[in-house]
Design goal:
The protein has 303 residues and is mostly helical. The chain contains 14 helices and no strands.
Length: 303
Amino acid sequence: MGHKKKLPGEGRLGFLFALPAVIYMLIFVGYPTISNLILSLKDVNVYNFARAEEQHFIGLANYVTLFTDPNSIMLRSITNTLIFTVASIFFQFIIGFALALLFSKKFPGSSFFRGATMISWLLPVTVAGLLFKFIFASSGGIANQMLMSLHLISKPVDWLLTGKTAMVAIVVANIWIGIPFNMMLLLTGLTTVPADIYESARIDGSSRLQTLFMITIPVIKPAIMSVLTLGFVYTFKVFDLVWVMTKGGPVNATELASTYAYRLSFEQFEFSKGAASANILFLVLFIVGLFYIRLINEEEEIM
């Protein structure tokens, strides 16, 4: 078959359609990103913020300080972010996948319950954060009342006032928020599995467990990879949930890379160090984003 002849002006027309998006990206993404990078290479703080002549260029000194200064908790914030992200994604995926398998079956009330599970994802994150702050309250919190009624604990736990339990609390809150996102994407992937494959497996005597691991998971592998990649991006940059619940405390136990960048910029007024911290977060997400784009391109080549 011959190549399709390109119409005169077709390339220019396509560029004109894309031009608004390009302008939007340059103004609202490109300019802030470049400005933040330049800011991180200077020494800008509350004392010289309004005096440009005193904002000296210091190169990568802010980045070096973040990782070498004893007063800096950059490494700890990155470690906390990784713990928070991995724990959240693991349970979000497991529970979301189980619910996707459940709601892929037709049973009375399935549509209602599937819609009801979306409530946690539709709620504003700040509202969800306040909700879980009350749930994990030391006195009168639902979590303590439930655990005490089941005789799993003998006295109330200070969930948000102790390091390890505070991390558990914000992870549980984020899991609750993210489950519907995982469920819906995986449920969409499950709809692409041909029904005759399951019928053939049933005739061959395959068990449900064998069907799950030998058919379902391999077929929806692209959807699984997309869910895990997007889940990492969304979770790694979480700010509002943690800020509402713990503000990075107690004693930096739940300080994430996002909250630390905010604290440096808007509480300690070390604007250049805050910009450097935000750029480190951006670099990690940029690398993951490139991986996701490569994954999408590989899927399109296979199709």
